[in-house]
Amino acid sequence: SFKANVSINPHWTEELNEQSFKIVLKQYEGTPDNLVETVISSLEWEYIPDTQFPVNLTQEFSLDIPYGNWGWYDADAFNEDTVPVDSLKQYITSLHTALVNKDYTALEPFLTTKSTELAHAFGIPLNERFDDQKTFFITELFSHPAWGLEPLNFENMIFQFHAQGRLVEVIDIKGKSLIQSAILDEGYNFSLPLFLCHKNDQWILCR
Questions:
Q1: Model pTM?
Q2: CB 3.0–4.6 Å: which of 27, 71, 90, 162 could bond 38 by disulfide?
């Protein structure tokens, strides 16, 4: 199921008569060059006069192809007050160091869950996904003599919580990942989104 909570922004000054939205849940199968799209479910809302806010909407759906549980599904749930910041910083620092050192052997374990689940979602053979990933980092990124990362800056770190707090997105005040490559005049500029989950006392990059 997915849920939506509709409320009124206290600073909203315009009429509500034309306010509406639609959420569409889609499933994609195949390869990136040949994706087949299927609409699984949708949820629509349109303002009706005298609507009492907030409005809580729920839509149930089922998948014909069971994907099993994603890495974050049984992860620990956090909020701003409970997220273990010190261990998260240590994890991101280790990931950043592997990239700075252009050390794919050290980097690969960080990417295992993310790559496995993306391969599963897009119907890509796992070995093919891992081979493409290795080629990308070693050939496209690490081979460039001027490629490198910006220094880590935890001062303006912001958490966004997804999946009832089980998936933690780490960004800066500009909404960007903390892991950004230095800007190159020529070559591949790189950013690694940080969608993390935590279970069994360890952080996992899972999206």
A1: 0.70
A2: 27
Identify the band that residue 67 occupies on the pLDDT scale cut at 50, 70 and 90.
low
100 Cα distance to chain centroid = 22
User: pLDDT tens across 161-204, in order?
Assistant: 999 999 999 999 999 999 998 877 666 778 999 999 999 999 99
**Which are the contacts of 144, defined by CB distance < 8 A and separation ≥ 6?**
184, 187, 188
Instruction: Kindly report the number of other CB atoms within 10 A of residue 190's CB atom.
Output: 19
Contact present, 191 and 99 (Cβ < 8 Å)? no
| φ/ψ (deg, to 5) at 59 | -130, 125
Residue 45: which of 37, 36, 54 has the closest Cα? 54
Please indicate whether residue 204 or residue 57 has the higher confidence score (pLDDT): 204
104-122 and 126-135 helices, crossing angle to 10°: 140
73 vs 34: CA distance, rounded Å:
28
Distance CA 171, CA 157 (A): 6
- Verify cis geometry, omega within 30 degrees of 0, for the bond prior to 54: yes
> Structure tokens of 10?
């206290």
SS (H, E, C) 90-137: HHHHHHHHHHHCCCHHHHHHHHHHHHHHHHHHHCCCHHHHHHHHHHHH
- What does DSSP assign to residue 189? -
